[in-house]
Specification:
By secondary structure, the protein is an alpha+beta fold. 18% of the residues are buried. The chain is built from three helices and ten strands; from the N terminus they run H-E-E-E-E-H-H-E-E-E-E-E-E.
Length: 181
């Protein structure tokens, strides 16, 4: 089910545009988060800006008939190059504007992702809501801006299909897959 959710989110993230007069895809790379920025020398190279999806722990609740729900927290790691020319005394305003442009990306993502909901083959989720922004400047060559979103996720990957048998005065439902959980 998480694979289907990731693929649905990946499709949406790669459709986010830069909101310029001629909109272009904003993200050049999308992947699951595995601390890529911390291990950049060992990591397969990727183009930036990149977005990585990190699923936080899921506290599942049983609803019945093997349907479960959880409050999903997902971190979108927006990875951009670090440009040191952000100080107010930079003489060339274009250089400074380029260096500060990474600060606009979370807002662009918010405008195009906040409130989105969806369904996929094994589940669905309600409106994604941005709840936190965590700038992370602790890397030498890159900035990892973390945008935290939440939604309610429903897992329908194993719903019990029952067969009803009506007899005189008695109705019985049988699980066609006994013993599977």
């Amino acid at each position: 089910m998480l694979k289907d959710l990731f693929l649905a989110l990946e499709q949406k993230l790669l459709a986010v545009t830069d909101e310029q007069p001629e909109p272009q895809p904003l993200f050049k790379h999308c992947d699951l988060w595995n601390r890529q920025v911390e291990f950049i020398e060992q990591e397969t190279q990727f183009l930036t800006p990149a977005v990585f999806v990190e699923f936080m722990p899921l506290p599942w609740e049983q609803l019945g008939k093997n349907i479960q729900e959880a409050d999903l927290t997902v971190h979108f790691h927006i990875v951009t190059p670090w440009h040191a020319n952000t100080a107010s005394n930079i003489i060339n305003p274009e250089v400074r504007a380029t260096a500060l442009s990474y600060l606009d990306i979370p807002t662009v993502l918010f405008r195009q992702l906040h409130g989105q909901h969806g369904s996929f083959g094994t589940g669905n989720f309600n409106a994604l809501t941005r709840v936190k922004s965590i700038p992370n400047h602790d890397h030498e060559r890159f900035v990892d801006s973390i945008e935290e979103y939440r939604c309610r996720l429903k897992d329908l990957s194993y719903t019990v299909r029952t067969m009803a048998i009506d007899t005189v005065g008695l109705s019985v439902e049988f699980d066609p897959h006994p013993g599977q959980q």
